[in-house]
Design brief:
The protein has one domain: Ribonuclease Z/Hydroxyacylglutathione hydrolase-like (Metallo-beta-lactamase, Chain A, 4-Layer Sandwich), CATH 3.60.15.10. The chain has two helices and 14 strands. The two termini are about 20 Å apart.
Length: about 190
């Protein structure tokens, strides 16, 4: 069994590339597949316009977003979730919408035939990665790396679990969109 989503009709955009150091911001992504419109990690940014202006420029209003995915529950990845009032919210163990909490394991959950969630613990025990299968390959929105350089050893991680999650993501991803940096193409230099 492969982690790859069944179809390859998704498209994606990085709305804002995150950073850390002097301040912290999450990388915020947009994935579309048919009627499914997903925002990944609507967390801390210098100004909300950094995620909303690119969204609107792509023809998507905040009310159009059908799903929001949290890679994990740290505030720097979740704090702006309420900007998308019509969305279902996904984390490692449930879907939340309005006043309904639906238990489900994120492992293997499909938001669409081309968008799939997998468990990738390490940075936190509950981390998940969102896989978007496009015509160009599979993009992984993930926090198994903070940016393209790692760090090789995440100071907050259970490193044994993180190393296993990195190997899992590398087995399927053609492109990685890390938690706090621009997208990168994995290579032999990518921290394992």
């Amino acid at each position: 069994m492969t982690d790859a989503p069944r179809a390859s009709t998704a498209t994606f955009h990085v709305l804002t590339a995150g950073y850390y150091g002097r301040g912290v911001a999450s990388t915020v992504g947009l994935i579309r597949d048919g009627e499914v419109i997903v925002v990944v990690d609507p967390g801390m940014v210098r100004a909300r316009s950094q995620m909303l202006d690119p969204l609107v420029a792509l023809g998507v209003r905040p009310d159009d977003v059908t799903d929001v995915v949290f890679s994990h529950h740290h505030p720097d990845h979740t704090i702006n979730a309420a900007l998308f009032p019509s969305a279902r919210y996904h984390d490692h163990w449930a879907i939340y919408q309005d006043d309904v909490w639906t238990n489900r394991d994120a492992e293997g959950f499909e938001l669409s035939p081309s968008i799939k969630l997998i468990r990738t613990p390490g940075h936190s025990a509950e981390d998940i990665t969102t896989l978007a299968h496009t015509a160009d390959g599979i993009a992984a929105f993930t926090h198994v790396w903070w940016n393209g350089d790692g760090p090789a050893e995440d100071p907050y991680a259970d490193m044994e679990r993180l190393h296993a999650s990195r190997v899992r993501v590398l087995a399927v991803a053609d492109l990685a969109i890390p938690g706090h940096g621009p997208a990168f193409t994995p290579s032999d230099a990518t921290p394992r």
